[in-house]
Amino acid sequence: MGLKSDWTKTGFATRAIHGGQEPDPSTGAIMTPIFQTSTFVQESPGVFKGYEYSRTSNPTRVALEGNLASIEGAKYARAFASGSAATAAILGCLDPGDHVLCGDDVYGGSFRLMDKVYRRFGLEFSYVDQTDLAAVKAAIRPNTKLCWIETPTNPTLKVADIEEICSLCNAAGVASVVDNTFATPFLQLPLSLGATMVAHSTTKYLGGHSDVVGGAVITNDEEWMERVQFILNCMGGNPGPQDCFLTMRGIKTLHVRMDRHCDNAEKCAAFLESHPGVSKVIYPGLASHPQHDIAAKQMKRFGGMISFHVVGGLEAARRFLESVQVFSLAESLGGVESLIEHPAIMTHASVPAEAREALGIHDDFIRLSVGIEEASDLIEDLEQALAKAKG
Question: Is the pLDDT of residue 5 over 70?
Fold first, then answer.
C-alpha cells in the first residue's frame, strides 16, 4: 500500500480520507486491514514480500505513514508509539556535543526528554523565546545541529514565525523540526514554510477521539528519514497495527472536526475575554494576542486551544476546575470532548518552577482543549464554574 500519485493533486479532505490507502487487493475491503502479525513468511532466506518483521515495518503502519505524508504534503513519514517516541528518535539521530536550539515554552515531556535524558548523553540544549528572531539568530552556535520549534506553544500559546526561523536555520545549515500537534496539517503546513521535519503527537487532534496514543515524524529529506527509520528500528518505538488503524480512522474526519474545534474555541475565547472573573485570555485568534498577525499569516484558522488566568489565584483555579461539568479535568488534548487542566500541577510539573514563573504558568493559569460539543453548553459550563470560583 502506498501513496496514490493522483491523491497529491486533490484537496485536503480527499487526501485525509484516501491518501496512502487503497482497497485491500485480496478482498476489496475499503478499510485498511489490521495486520495483527509480528513476522512474515519468507520464500527463501532474505526473499520476502516487502515485510519481514513488524518492528521494522507493517502494512497497516505503512498505510498510516502514507496518509500522514499525504496530509502534510511530504514524501516520507514514520509512525511511532507516542509523540515522545517520535521526539526521542529525532534527538537520537544527533551525536554527543551537538547543540539543539529549543523554544522556551514546549510540552513538558519534550523538555523532560531533552533535559533529563539526552543532556546526560552529551547533547547540549538552550532555550530561547522564539518569538524574538534576534534571540534565535544569536543563539545559533557552530555546533547547532537542530532547532526545535513548537507553535503554537504548549501551554502559553506563543506563535513562532516558522518561515523566518527556518530561513535563519537553513542559512546556518541547521535542521529544523516543527511540533505541529496543536495546529495540525489542516491549519498549518510547516514543510511548505521551510521546515526540515514535522513532529506530531497523533494522540491529539489526528487521532481525535482520546482512544489511542501515537506519534509521527514527517519530512521531505531522505537522509533525515533514513536516520529516523534506523533509530525507530533499533529502539523499537513502533506503534502496533491496531493503534495505526485507529489513528487512520481519526484522520478521516480531521478536517470536519478542526473546523468545529476552531468555531467553538473562538466563541469560548470571546466569552472568557469579556468575563470579570478572568484576568487574561491567550488565544491566537484574538486581536489581543501578541503574535496574532503571525498566526494569521501561517495558519488557516487559530485552533482549539485556549489558556487563561482566573482571578483569585490557586484556590479560585481549584474551585473552578472542580466545578466544570461539560469540560473534563484531564491531561491530554485534541479529542472530540472538551478537556481542562492546570499546567503547573499537571502537564508541566516537570518544568522547573522558576521557568514556569518566567513563562507566566502561574497558579491561576488554566488550559482548555475546546471540543466539538455545542458551543452554548461549553460557555454555560465555563460561566457556572467561574461563578463558583469566586468562593
Answer: no
Q: CB atoms < 10 A from the CB of 325, how many?
A: 10
118 is catalytic: no
- State the pLDDT confidence band at 391, using cuts at 50, 70 and 90: confident
Sheet containing 76-80: give its strands across.
76-80, 215-219, 197-201, 175-179, 144-150, 99-103, 124-128
Best CA proximity match to 364, nearest among 307, 313, 306: 313
Q: What is the pTM of this model?
A: 0.95
Catalytic residue among 55, 249, 252, 260: 55
221 is catalytic: no
Region 111-122: what's the mean pLDDT?
Answer: 97
Please say whether the beta carbons of 308 and 278 come within 8 A.
Answer: yes
The set of cell numbers assigned to 384 is: 457556572
Q: Is the pLDDT reported for residue 2 higher than 70?
A: no
C-alpha cell at 231: 533509530
Q: Is position 179 annotated as part of the catalytic site?
A: yes
| Model pLDDT for residues 358-390, shown as the tens digit of each residue | 888 899 999 999 999 999 999 999 999 999 998
For residue 52, give the C-alpha cell.
519481514
Catalytic residue among 179, 243, 363, 364: 179
The residue type of 119 is: R
Q: Is 267 a catalytic residue?
A: no
Question: 5-251 — its CATH code?
Answer: 3.40.640.10
Q: Whole-number mean pLDDT of the chain? A: 95
What 3-state class would DSSP assign to 195?
coil
**pLDDT score of 349:** 79
- Ordered by start, the domain boundaries in the chain are 5-251, 255-389
* Architecture of the 255-389 domain: Alpha-Beta Complex (3.90)
